[in-house]
Specification:
The model has no long low-confidence stretch (mean pLDDT 89). The longest helix has 36 residues, at 104-139. This protein has 252 residues and is mainly alpha-helical. The chain has one domain. The chain has helices at residues 16-28, 31-53, 62-73, 77-90, 94-100, 104-139, 150-174, 177-192, 200-206, 208-216, 224-248. The termini are far apart. The protein is built from 11 helices and no strands.
């Protein structure tokens, strides 16, 4: 007598690499995502145009050009990742997604890895654009310093990933695209008020406009605790809340 196979024998988990491919398509293959990525490219080019157009007002160094590239790409790239993080809930596809992949934590992990991977790719492209702009500036007769220290390069990479991760964390926490975008810009505007001298000491611990600015400039010394504090507030807390909410939320 042949033993019947148990139903569990056929329940083979979806490979994580397949989840990554699916999330990559969700992140990049929509019309909104493509427009946002195109706009990110334009804002990066606009940022690089500033040191090129105002050589007497902006330091002519490779680090300065890279700094402006980072500022340009950080304006809209987090929004692209918010769209991916909120897609299932805003577009009412959560039932399909979590039926095919019931382990929600793996889906969320795939979204996070995909988002950071896209951020790294965009950051690398912006670095290349900065190098091309430096070459153009030199061709125009500018004297551009070739100095670019390890802390500055590491700071640029960390800045790109940290600012992008904010979009991931807020999207994971709120599950709604419009609410995530409004919250992102609203909180950024509110925390920017902490740069007022009277409350600047508080802002140095919670305002990413200040703390991540130190990261981008490679000014790590003496600011590690402040950078960690703002990262915990903007990244760790909303991402932890988003994980718990994603695991427990009822899917309809």
């Amino acid at each position: 007598m042949t033993a019947l196979a148990t139903p569990q024998a056929y329940l083979v988990p979806i490979p994580f690499t397949r989840l990554l491919r699916a999330e990559w398509r969700k992140t990049t293959d929509t019309r909104a995502a493509r427009w946002l990525l195109a706009a990110t490219a334009l804002t990066t080019i606009g940022g690089l145009a500033i040191p090129l157009a105002f050589p007497h007002n902006v330091a002519q160094t490779r680090a300065s050009y890279l700094l402006w590239a980072g500022l340009g790409l950080s304006r809209l790239l987090p929004i692209t990742l918010m769209l991916a993080m909120t897609a299932e809930w805003s577009q009412r596809t959560a039932l399909t997604t979590f039926t095919l992949a019931p382990r929600r934590g793996r889906v969320l992990a795939a979204k996070i890895v995909t988002g950071l991977g896209l951020s790294a790719a965009v950051g690398l492209a912006a670095f290349g654009a900065a190098e091309l702009t430096v070459a153009l500036a030199r061709a125009l007769g500018r004297s551009v310093s070739a100095s670019l220290s390890g802390p500055q390069l590491a700071g640029y990479a960390a800045f790109v990933l940290l600012t992008s991760a904010i979009g991931v964390a807020i999207g994971a926490a709120l599950h709604n695209t419009a609410a995530a975008i409004v919250t992102y810009f609203g909180l950024a505007a509110a925390f920017s008020l902490l740069m007022i001298p009277a409350v600047a000491r508080v802002g140095d611990w919670v305002n990413t406009g200040q703390t991540f600015g130190w990261v981008l400039a490679g000014q790590w010394a003496g600011h590690g605790a402040q950078i960690a504090s703002s990262a915990a507030l903007w990244l760790a807390l909303p991402l932890a809340f988003g994980l718990i909410r994603t695991l427990r939320r009822e899917v309809r």
